[in-house]
Each structure stands twice: as structure tokens, then as C-alpha cells.
Write a structure and sequence with these properties.
The complex is a heterodimer of chains A (371) and B (559).
Chain A lengths: L18 E4 L2 E4 L6 H7 L23 E4 L6 E2 L10 E3 L3 H16 L16 H8 L24 E3 L9 H10 L5 E3 L6 E3 L16 H5 L5 E3 H4 L9 E6 L8 E7 L2 E7 L12 H5 L14 E3 L6 E3 L2 H19 L6 E3 L5 H15 L4 E3 L4
Parallel strand pairs in A: 1-5, 15-16
Antiparallel strand pairs in A: 1-2, 3-4, 3-5, 6-9, 7-8, 10-11, 11-12, 13-14
Chain B lengths: L5 H8 L6 H12 L4 H11 L3 H10 L14 E3 L2 H6 L1 H10 L5 E3 L10 E4 L2 E4 L37 H6 L4 H9 L2 H11 L11 H10 L5 E7 L8 H8 L1 H15 L1 E8 L4 H16 L15 E6 L9 H8 L23 E5 H13 L1 H7 L7 E8 L5 E6 L4 H8 L9 E5 L7 E3 L9 H4 L10 E6 L4 H15 L5 H14 L7 H18 L3 H5 L1 H10 L1 H11 L1
Parallel strand pairs in B: 1-2, 5-6, 5-8, 6-7, 9-13
Antiparallel strand pairs in B: 1-3, 3-4, 9-10, 11-12, 11-13
Helix pairs in contact in B: 1-2, 1-3, 2-3, 8-12, 8-15, 9-10, 9-12, 9-16, 11-12, 12-15, 15-16, 19-20, 19-23, 20-21, 21-23
Classes of the chains: A alpha+beta (371), B alpha/beta (559).
Chain lengths: 371, 559
């Protein structure tokens, strides 16, 4: 995650001149910034599993604890606001030991420690921290938590909760970013479980399959099933930054390809229009690109209910123009209604309305994005 | 009376303050459980997303989601009741055709073994001998030791307004609203040295002053009556026998801080207490002691009772506030504290029952009087709920600084059957065990804290020398694992791993076992987000400290 909601200290008033001490170094901060945010700017590389910069700080995983002079216990840096004169240590031997033990505890509750990166954007976070803290020790062995939902046969979101660590990033992103409130937290303690209303399937819930829960999951408990279907496609995954073509919002995406095949879509966390959000189409509906039924040349149907035959652009356009003209001549200009595709760029949409208004003389023009 | 419709129930509650819990209780009482349809109706009525509402309902132990679940007997499996016959009673209920399930300590350690069925609490040892009855009054202290909150509690009729007034009470409120400024009231409480009696021991006067000075209205007084700590049953006896003392204390806090609304957040397991409090509030309202224009002045304070639904964590003040607000009852991140960002993010006093009930006598008799009730340099008194292997279990209001041995032997008659004290718990279960020479402590934080424990809410369970301390620790840790909310990793995973290690799991060698348990203890104490996860490891820590031989024997037996 690279995006930041709070920027660097600015000279615009309230935050001027505030400083604290971070690992012995005097640093500036803006009022309202958390210790974690200040430390991130200074590359302290504080570990965390429940943090997503787009969400309200939660303070669940406790990996980001830091020592604040005068405090009895370490505090979670993600929920602690920076204060003038605060003296903070982010990587003492004691903290690193606590973090290692916490990571050993986390590792002990999951079925798998390593998952295919095609699971989602954040899916390697836990594994990377396990390596960083050398925490694959097998200590604290015991019951594993979470019950997977292989019965949820939706084609988009895999729900493998035996790999869930109850950071609740999925629940929070669903509520705070998407506004769907489709999932929540059931039960307590070690028996907490991510659930929909009454424990049902996602398709029967308020879920819109936007996929944001997948992309923020740090363990791969939630998986992008469309991308995972391509996990065995040979070749290195290449990522290409582009704009989603589905509608006019302009969400930034990183298209994953292997060879000439699109194998998955990742939302761009730094996309100015979407901040990591996508919709079901932008996230999952990419397989039309290489589909055998996709049109590769214009087709013409000579008579009603007749077969389609391959044609050329010139022939097809002349044919369409001729039929349109015939309709207008026969039934009047108001017998035509134009709907521009939401996937068309502005310029094309403009041309479409000019064509309908100036060309055919009617105001019967709309855009499918309205629906 | 006709059975109320969904719409009747929703209309009854939707415009009331903190409506979610009472509305869910109303549906549960009507239907005997919370059906899917009921939850959907509540979600629509209160505009709560249905997934959130469902998740929140599952958080509470006493919301039943199966038909007839409310009537299903729930039997205490707390540490004291397990010594007093949980198993026998459960078997006897089963033989009588019931389908009993265990529940965490419902605060009847002085009357084992309690069972909740429907909305009734019964106590007894077998299915055929279960009875309901009032909370036992506290035993008299020896040698005429002066009391604060228990001074008037044994007087007949004390729970009624007439009985309470007969003995001169509500005088403190009258004195305050007619003759003192709010600042004067805070000054007296501050000078008395009164500290919070729910566990944390924060100075009450400082809390009230912080709320009085905090910007934002309306302000709120919340009485934390979610007495969920196993081995604690002091607030129950206070509310059952002296409800007006609590109401007067809350009104004083409201006057001192400028608050206009109050809640008593009462644990689910005290249904009789709910009725007593409701009745007392109606009486006080009728007498102009609550509501608009209190005692002929322009002081206004509205008070209502909200019942929890079975969640220990809701005794943590920020969980309690989330619960009141109808949210998922995870603890909030602090700071900000409730004094500035409490109920509905506005300044809020959250005080324990005993703390609030102490305010009227302090105001009447003065700060010096209260100070003087303690021994040595210690101010005031503390109610101790004493249970387990002790001749006279019950609630004792002791002077702060009283030697523990004196309470156990002189006040409560010592250990029965010629046995000796092996260990006691402190702070209910949260303070872990004291044993050996550490039983020589005095009952005050400066004496107890250096021993790695704390007095807290004042529950003390006694275990004689016949008890299996590893088994007691396991039962106690099972409680914390059951009640861990699931928000923070060290507590959610740590309580589970500690239970497993006390129940035959984990490494078999003593060194590896102690190594893992000590690491879990340390990380839970240092990094847990709230008091539950920080306190639970005190059990295993004190087990290792006092009983290393028992651990060895336990592990050898397992091997």
C-alpha cells in the first residue's frame, strides 16, 4: 500500500512547527497524524497486518506497537496520534521480540502460510512478515481458526477462512469504502468468523462483488477466483497500468498478463479516481478479451431473422445508414432513439449526440451509464 | 393483553435513547428467541445493516437464535460453582428432561449454583431444589467497623423511597443542588480520595472534573453495572437492597458535571435487579428527584436502565459505550477517553455502582470522614466479594489497607473442614492468584501490585489445599477465552493457546511448555488492546510463580 490519506507536513496553518522524536531523530508532523503515519514517512517500516491506509485505524493486530516514553505498555502506533515532544522508539529489541512472538501466534492459527500471489493484491503480506521475523517456527501449535465456505459457489470471491487471521480488513473495506455492509463479524474470540447476514452465501447478501475485500486481504483467505483460474498459465506476470474501459469514472487498474493473455486485474491503490476500488465488471469481467465468440470483423444480417455474414466496415456502415434513413423516412424523426455506450470515451459520446440531434433531428439520446 | 406485533415493539423503542438492546430483548421475550424475521424487523426499524446486526447479536451469550432458546437452562460453570456442583446440577437437569448449557459466572458465588431459565435466576444443587430469592444481605463487619456504602443497607425497607428517605437520604442531593455549586461537589469528591471501584481505580473527582470541563453537550452519566467479573457480586447486593443510593449518586454526578441523561448498564444476569431499579427510578421521578426541575430547581436529569445480553467485555467502559450505542461491542481505541468522547462521542462519566453509591455519604459526612475510613494512609473502603472455600462467603466492606488474612480468618471465619488456604484470586479472576507468603498482603493496591496482581473490583475466591490449581487455572482461562472479544490478536489467539496448554496440549517438556506460556503471557500483557487480554495471563504467570511443582506433575501425568 503506498497511498496516504494525510500528506506530508504543510505550511498551511495548524501543523506548523510540531515535532516529536522518532528513534532518536527529531521529526516534524501535522496535527492529526498518527505515529504510524509519521514513522511510515520516515521509512521506519513498522510491521502491521490490520492496517490499510484507506480505512480507519483499527488497532487489532498489535504488530505496530511502539514504545512511547512515559507509557507503561507499548502502544499501537496506528491508533496513537502524534503529540508534540513525544519520544517514540519503533524498533527496540523488546518490540522486535514481541512482534516475532505475535507472528508465531498468527502463523499457528492458519492452515496455509503461503498462498499463490494471484489470490489478490495484499495476499503476500503475512508471508512476508513471517519471513522478516523468522517466525515459521511451529511454536504455539494448536487449533486453527475459521471455517472455509467451499459451499459458496459464486464465480468471483473465494472464501477460505481457514486462512483468515481476523484482521477484519474485508469487513471494514466493505463498510467504509464500498458502503455495502454485506459482511460482518460473527461470534467472539478465537471463534470469530467473517459472515454475511445469517451465515448465508454472498449472492444472497448485500454484496456487489466489487472485490475490494479480496484485494485488502493480507493472507489470501479471500481469493480472486477469476485470476486464480489462470494461476497455471505459463510465463512471468507482467503488470500494465491502464484505465478501466467499462465506464466514465476512469478507475486505474494494473492489468496482469502472461505472454499475450490477460490473467487478472488489480485495482491501483494510487488510482486518483478509485483509490483501490473497482466494481464487479472492472475487477472480474476481463475474459471477454480473449473469448472465441468475440467479434473480430463487422457482420451484416441481410434480412430479418436471417444469418449474420462477415462483412467490411464500409459495407456495414452503409447498410446501417441506409436502414436508419428508411426508418426516419417511414416513421418520422422521433422514431429513433440513441443510447451511447458507457464504455465510449467522451469524444465518441459527443459525436453520438451530435449524430442523433443534428443528424437525425431528435433529442432522443441517452447514455447507458444513467442506468 | 394481545401479543405485540413487530411494529408495536419497534414503535415502543425506536425513539428511546439506546434502543437496540431493549428492542432485541423485547423480541426475545415475545418469541422465546431471536428469529431471523425478528432481526430483519429490528434492522429495518433501527436502520442497522442486517449483516452488522446479525454479527452483533451473535456476540452476546444470552441472545438465543434457536426456538425456545430463552427457556433452555443455563448453568454457571464459574470456578466456585465448579467446586460446588455444576456437574451434578447439570446432570440432574438433564435427567429431568432439560437440555442445559453452560454459562459464565452470573455473579451468585455466594449462593451456588445459579441457573438462568427464561428471565429467571434460580439457585440450588439439583433440578428439584432450585429456588429464587433475594440477594443475601452483607454480613455485619466485626468490632463495629464503620462502613460507607453498606452503612444503611441492612435497614428494613431500604430499597423503597420511603425507607431510604426515612433514614435521611437524598439529603446529599438536596444539599448539593440547593446549597453547593457543581465545582463544590467535585471538590469534596476529589478531596475524599474516592477512586473507581470497578477495577481501574481512577480518581472519581478527577473524572468528574474532566467531564465538567469538557466541551460538548449533552453530557452523560453511565453507571457500569455490568458486573461480569467471576467472583464479583457486590454491585448486585448494592442495587438490590439500596437502589436509591445509586440513583442519588448518579444525580450528584450529573449535577457536578452538567450531565442531563444517565444510563445504568446492567448485566443481563441480574433480571430481578432490573425490576428493582426500574421501580426505584419511577419512585424517584414521582418525588421530583429525577426528571425535570429536580427538588424545585432547574436541574434536570433523566435516567434509564439498559440491560446487557451476556458479554464480559461490555464491562470494559468503551465496549459498554459501543454496546449502548447498538454497535459491535469491541473496545474502542483510547485516547480519546470517554470523559471527552463517550456516549455518542460526547463527554461521559463512566463509574462503577459502588463508586457512585459512595458519593452521597461522602457529601453528607465530608471528605475527611471518608478518608478516615481507610487504614493508615489509605482512603476509604472497598467492598470485597468473598467466595469459594470460606466459611462465611459474602460481601464485606473493608477499610482499605485491611490485612487479607484478617478478612479471611477474623471476618469470614476461615477455611472450613480443617483445611488451609492454598491460594486466592484477586480482582475476581483478573488479578490471577496470590499464594504462599504473598497471602500476607493488605487489601490496597500499593501492597498487591508489586506482587504482580491487583485488587481491582474486589472479588476474592479462596481455594483450599485440596484443590487442583492447574485445573482451576484452566477453568479460569476458559472463561477469558470464552469472553475474548476477538478484536486484538494477542488476546484472541493467546487465551486459546493458554487454555490448550492447560488442557493437555502444547509441548510436553516442562522447559518448552514454560517457555511458550511465558512468551504468551508477556506478549498478552504488553500488547493486548484492553484489560482483558492484559489481565488473563496473570493467571498463568502466577501459576508458574507459585506452583511450578504442580505444572511438572501435570505435564508428567500427560506424558
Amino acid at each position: 500500500m503506498t497511498m496516504k490519506r494525510n500528506g506530508t507536513p504543510s505550511a498551511n496553518g495548524t501543523g506548523v512547527g510540531l515535532t516529536m522524536t522518532l528513534d532518536g531523530e527529531k521529526v516534524a508532523f501535522t496535527r492529526g497524524e498518527t505515529v504510524y503515519e509519521v514513522a511510515e514517512r520516515h521509512r521506519s517500516e513498522i510491521p502491521t497486518l490490520c492496517y490499510d491506509p484507506r480505512l480507519e485505524s483499527f488497532g487489532g493486530c498489535r504488530l505496530c506497537v511502539v514504545e512511547v516514553e512515559g507509557a507503561r505498555n507499548p502502544v499501537a502506533s496506528c491508533t496513537t496520534e502524534a503529540q508534540p515532544g513525544m519520544r517514540v522508539r519503533t524498533r527496540t529489541a523488546a518490540l522486535e521480540t514481541q512482534r516475532r512472538i505475535l507472528m508465531e501466534m498468527v502463523a499457528s492459527e492458519n492452515r496455509d502460510l503461503d498462498v499463490d500471489p494471484m489470490h489478490g493484491y495484499a495476499s503476500q503480506e503475512m508471508a512476508e512478515l513471517l519471513d522478516r521475523y523468522d517466525a515459521r517456527t511451529g511454536r504455539f501449535r494448536g487449533a486453527t481458526s475459521g471455517t472455509s465456505r467451499p459451499d459458496d459457489d459464486n464465480p468471483f470471491i473465494g472464501r477460505d477462512y481457514e486462512n483468515c487471521i481476523s484482521c477484519y480488513r474485508c469487513v471494514r473495506v466493505c463498510a467504509e469504502q464500498e458502503g455495502d455492509y454485506a459482511i460482518s463479524i460473527m461470534n467472539r474470540g478465537f471463534h470469530t468468523q467473517i459472515t454475511t447476514e445469517f451465515g448465508g452465501l454472498l449472492k444472497d447478501s448485500a454484496c456487489t462483488f466489487c472485490g475490494q475485500c479480496i484485494q485488502t486481504c493480507p493472507t489470501g483467505a479471500l481469493g480472486d477466483l477469476k485470476a486464480l483460474a489462470n494461476k497455471d498459465v505459463p510465463g512471468e506476470t507482467e503488470k500494465t497500468r491502464t484505465i478501466c474501459t467499462y465506464c466514465g469514472v476512469g478507475c486505474s487498474v494494473d492489468v496482469m498478463t502472461r505472454g499475450d493473455r490477460i490473467v487478472g486485474i488489480l485495482p491501483a491503490m494510487d488510482g486518483p479516481a478509485n483509490e483501490g476500488a473497482l466494481c464487479v465488471k472492472g475487477q472480474f469481467a476481463f475474459d471477454f478479451v480473449g473469448h472465441p465468440d468475440r467479434l473480430d470483423t463487422p457482420y451484416v444480417r441481410d434480412e430479418k431473422d436471417g444469418p449474420l455474414r462477415p462483412s467490411t466496415w464500409d459495407e456495414a456502415l452503409d447498410f446501417a445508414a441506409g436502414r436508419l434513413r428508411k426508418v426516419v423516412e417511414g416513421h418520422g424523426r422521433r422514431s429513433v432513439y440513441g443510447i451511447a455506450s458507457g464504455r465510449a470515451p467522451h469524444e465518441a459520446a459527443y459525436m453520438m449526440q451530435r449524430f442523433i440531434r443534428a443528424g437525425l433531428g431528435t433529442n432522443h439520446i441517452d447514455n447507458c451509464s444513467r442506468a | 393483553m394481545a401479543t405485540p406485533t413487530d411494529q408495536d415493539l419497534i414503535e415502543r423503542w425506536q425513539d428511546e435513547p439506546a434502543p437496540l438492546l431493549p428492542l432485541l430483548h423485547a423480541f426475545q421475550e415475545r418469541d422465546g428467541y431471536l428469529s431471523e424475521e425478528a432481526m430483519r424487523a429490528v434492522g429495518r426499524g433501527l436502520r442497522i445493516p442486517i449483516a452488522d446486526l446479525f454479527g452483533t447479536v451473535t456476540f452476546y451469550h444470552h441472545f438465543a437464535r434457536e426456538p425456545a432458546g430463552l427457556e433452555r437452562p443455563r448453568v454457571c460453570d464459574g470456578p466456585v460453582c465448579q467446586m460446588r456442583g455444576t456437574e451434578v446440577l447439570t446432570a440432574s437437569l438433564r435427567a429431568a428432561g432439560h437440555d442445559p448449557s453452560p454459562m459464565p459466572c452470573p455473579g451468585r458465588c455466594d449462593q451456588p449454583v445459579p441457573v438462568i431459565t427464561g428471565s429467571e435466576v434460580l439457585t440450588g444443587r439439583t433440578a428439584g431444589t432450585l429456588v429464587s430469592g433475594p440477594s443475601p444481605l452483607p454480613p455485619f463487619p466485626p468490632d463495629g467497623t464503620e462502613e460507607c456504602v453498606f452503612a444503611g443497607i441492612r435497614r428494613p425497607g431500604r430499597a423503597t423511597l420511603e425507607g431510604y428517605r426515612h433514614h435521611g437520604s437524598y439529603d446529599a442531593l438536596e444539599q448539593a443542588v440547593t446549597g453547593m455549586t457543581p465545582g463544590d461537589v467535585i471538590d469534596v469528591i476529589d478531596a475524599s480520595g474516592l477512586v473507581g471501584k470497578g477495577g481501574a481505580g481512577f480518581p472519581a473527582g478527577r473524572k468528574w472534573r474532566a467531564v465538567a470541563e469538557a466541551p460538548g453537550t449533552p453530557k452523560t452519566i453511565v453507571c457500569n453495572a455490568d458486573e461480569g467479573e467471576p467472583g464479583c457480586f457486590k454491585d448486585r447486593v448494592l442495587m438490590d437492597h439500596d437502589p436509591h443510593a445509586l440513583i442519588e449518586g448518579m444525580a450528584l454526578a450529573a449535577y457536578a458535571t452538567g450531565a442531563v441523561r444517565g444510563f445504568i448498564y446492567l448485566r443481563y444476569e441480574y433480571p430481578d435487579t432490573a425490576g428493582i431499579l426500574e421501580r426505584a427510578i419511577r419512585e424517584a421521578e414521582g418525588a421530583g428527584l429525577l426528571g425535570d426541575g429536580i427538588l424545585g430547581t432547574d436541574f434536570r436529569f433523566d435516567l434509564c436502565v439498559r440491560r446487557g445480553a451476556g458479554a464480559y467485555i461490555c464491562g470494559e467502559e468503551t465496549s459498554l459505550l459501543n454496546s449502548l450505542e447498538g454497535k459491535h461491542p469491541f473496545p474502542r481505541n483510547r485516547p480519546p477517553f470517554p470523559v471527552t468522547h463517550g456516549y455518542e462521542n460526547l463527554p461521559t462519566v463512566v463509574n462503577n455502582v459502588e463508586t457512585l453509591a459512595s458519593a452521597p455519604p461522602i457529601l453528607l459526612h465530608g471528605a475527611d470522614w471518608y478518608q478516615g475510613l481507610g487504614l493508615g494512609d489509605h482512603a476509604g473502603t472497598k467492598v470485597i466479594s468473598l467466595s469459594g472455600d470460606i466459611r462465611r462467603p459474602g460481601n464485606y466492606e473493608v477499610p482499605v489497607g485491611l490485612p487479607l488474612a484478617k478478612l479471611l480468618h477474623d471476618w469470614a471465619g476461615g477455611v472450613p473442614d480443617g483445611r488451609t488456604v492454598q491460594a486466592v484470586t484477586m480482582a475476581g479472576l483478573s488479578g490471577g492468584f496470590l499464594a504462599g507468603r504473598d497471602l500476607e498482603v493488605t487489601l490496597d493496591e500499593p501492597s498487591i501490585r508489586p506482587r504482580g496482581s491487583f485488587l481491582g473490583a474486589g472479588g476474592i475466591m479462596v481455594f483450599d489445599d485440596s484443590r487442583d490449581m492447574v485445573a482451576v487455572t484452566r477453568q479460569s482461562m476458559e472463561f477469558f477465552a470464552h469472553e475474548s472479544c476477538g478484536k486484538c490478536f494477542p488476546c484472541r489467539i493467546g487465551t486459546q493457546r493458554l487454555v490448550e496448554r492447560l488442557d493437555g496440549g502444547g509441548p510436553g517438556s516442562v522447559d518448552a511448555w514454560v517457555d511458550e506460556v511465558a512468551d504468551l503471557n508477556e506478549v498478552m500483557k504488553k500488547t493486548s488492546a484492553c484489560g482483558l487480554g492484559q489481565a488473563a495471563p496473570l493467571l498463568t504467570e502466577s501459576l508458574i510463580r507459585y506452583f511450578p511443582d504442580r505444572i511438572r506433575a501435570y505435564l508428567e501425568k500427560g506424558a
